[in-house]
Amino acid sequence: MGETVLVPVDGSPLSQQALRHTLETFPDATIIAFHVVNIYEPGYDVDETSISELLRGTGNWDEIEREAADHLLSKAEEIAAEYDRGIDTESDIGDPQRLIPDYARENAVDHIVMGVHGRADEDRSLVGRVAETVFFRSPVTVTTIR
């Protein structure tokens, strides 16, 4: 069986760059685009409507987020199609720092490729908090794209 590469995607340009890098670097691998709806720290993938639904406690939050995740993963499939490749897609809700390494561990992933959102100034890490935690918790090699 071939190599399996997990690419966390959040809709950011860096996550798209990580997916493109993976498609180019691992031509024979099974690639999984994995999106985590981060309810603790909304980012690129969460809109204001979703946040207000979550805060009000209405039942629409889950539906809004699932639709957003489907849209984001469809974009990942479009990128793969540019390379004449298919990819698998998965999503979950929770803390990406925990769910990304857990997914890799539970699903026989061989490698993780992810974009990093760290800052390049003196007071901040060059690697974002999520990427740093995934790097240390991951059971497999992690390649970061900046």
Tell me what you see in this structure:
Helix 2 (48-56) runs antiparallel to helix 3 and helix 4 runs parallel beside helix 5 (129-137). The chain has one domain (4-36, 69-145): Rossmann fold (3-Layer(aba) Sandwich). The chain has helices at residues 13-25, 48-56, 60-82, 96-106, 129-137; strands spanning 4-8, 30-38, 88-94, 111-115, 141-145. Strands 3-2-1-4-5 form a five-stranded parallel β-sheet, sandwiched between helices. The mean pLDDT is 84. By secondary structure, it is an alpha/beta fold. It is globular and about 40 Å long. Helix content is 45%, strand content 21%. It is built from five helices and five strands.
Summarize the structure.
With 146 residues, the protein is of the alpha/beta class. Helix content is 45%, strand content 21%. The chain has one domain (4-36, 69-145): HUPs (Rossmann fold).
Shape: globular
Share in β-strands: 15-25%
State the fourth-level CATH superfamily: HUPs
Determine the structural class based on helices, strands and strand pairing. Answer: alpha/beta
- Give the topology string: H per helix, E per strand: EHEHHEHEHE
Give the C-alpha Rg. Answer: 15 Å
Provide the low-confidence segments as ranges: none
Which fold does the CATH topology refer to?
A: Rossmann fold
Continuous helix count: 5
If classified by CATH, what would the architecture be? 3-Layer(aba) Sandwich
